[in-house]
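ESCALATION

Customer reports they have been waiting on this structure for their group meeting. Please prioritize. Original submission:
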Amino acid sequence: MIKLITDRYPALAFSLYRRYWLASLGSVGGWQIAAVAMGWLVFDLSGSVLDLGILGAALALPGIVMTMVGGVIADRFEKRTVLLMTTWVQVLVLILLACLDALGLISVTQVWLLAAIISTVSGIDGPTRQAFFPHLINRDALLSAVALNSVLWQLTRMVVPAVAGLIIATYSTALVFWLAALGYLIMLIVLLQIRLHLPGIQGSSPLSQIMEGLRFIVVNPLFRNLILLCYASMFFLSAYQQLMPAFADLLGAGPKGFGLLMSASGVGSIVGTVISGAIKPGPRYGRTMLAAAGFSAVMLSAFAVSTMLPSYLLALLFVLFSAAGLSVFLILSATALQFEVPDQLRGRVLGIHTITYSLMPLGALLIGALAEVYGTPVAMLMGLAGYTFIWMGLGASASIRHLEQPDGRSN
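Update from on-call: job pushed to the front of the queue and completed.
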C-alpha cells in the first residue's frame, strides 16, 4: 500500500517532505477553518454582504502587498527561520481572536483587523513555503509535490468547512478559532524538528530584487499571461466562497447546509486534482487548461441561477463541477510555472504567482458591493461576464494555447 502511494506520489518517499506535508494539513486546515468561521461570525454580527466583502479585502489586500516583499525575504533570508516566525504570529493572532470571541468582546471591525494581520503574515509565509518545499525532495519528484500541495488544500476544503459548520452550529465560532490555532501549532512543532539550513542570497538591494522578479515575468509571455489568467480566475471564479453565507441564506441552508456547500467545493477540487493527474503532456496541454477554466465559469453561472430558483441540490452539484474545473486549471498552470522558474528567482516569481490565492476574498469585495445593489446571484453573474472577456483575451495567447508539457516547451 505504501509503495503504491509513493509510486504515485514519489515526493512522499522523502521523510522530510512527508513530515512537512502532514504538518501542513494542520496549518492549511487551520487557515481554512478560521476563514469559514470569520465569514460566519461577520455575517452573524452584521447580516451584511458588504461586510463579508470587506472581510474578503482584509484577508486579501495586505497579503497581496506584502507578497512582493515576502518573495524577497524568501530569497534573502534563511527560509526555515522565516517560517518559524510567521507560524508563531499566526498562532498568537488566532488565540487572541478565540479569546475575544469566547468573551463576547468581538466586533466586526476587530475581525477585519485580525484578518488583515493574518493576511500580512501570509504574504511572507506563502512565498517562503513555495521556495522551501522543493529543497525537501529531488527535482524528479517536484511534479508530485506540486500535486500533493494542491491535494492538501483541496482535501482540507472538502472536510474542514463541513466540520466548521457543525462546530459552529453545535458549539461556537470561538472553538473553531482554538482549533485553527492548534493546527498552526502542529506546523510549528514540525518545523522545529526539521534541521535544514537554507541560507538566503543577499545580492542586490531588496527593491532591485523585486524588480528583477517582475522583469522576468513581464518579458516571459508564458509567465505573464498564465499568471494574469490565474489572477482573473481566482478573483472571479472563487469569490463565491467568501460570499457563501449569503448564498446559504438564499437557499435557506443554515450552518450545516452552509458547511456542506463549502465541502461540495472541496469535493469538486479533489475530483479536479484526480483528473489533472491523469492528463499527460501533449499538444493539447495548454488548451486543456483553458477548457477547464471556461467550464468552471459556466458551472458557476449555473450555480448563481440555482440560488435564484432556489434549489439547494442543484447548487451543490454546480459548485462541485465548478470547483473541479478550476482545480484542473490551477494545478496544470502551477506545474508549468514550477518547472520553468529559475531557482534563484523562485521565491520572488512564485511569490508573485502566490498572489493568486489572495484574490479570492478580494473578488468577494467587488461582488459583495454589487450585491448590495443587484442581489448576490446577479452580482455573481455580472462578475462572470467580465471574466469571460479576460479568459477569451488571454486564452488567445499562443504561449498558453500551444503549451505542450509542464517543462514549458511548446510548438
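Sent to customer with the following note: The CA atoms of residues 6 and 13 lie 6 Å apart.
Escalation resolved.
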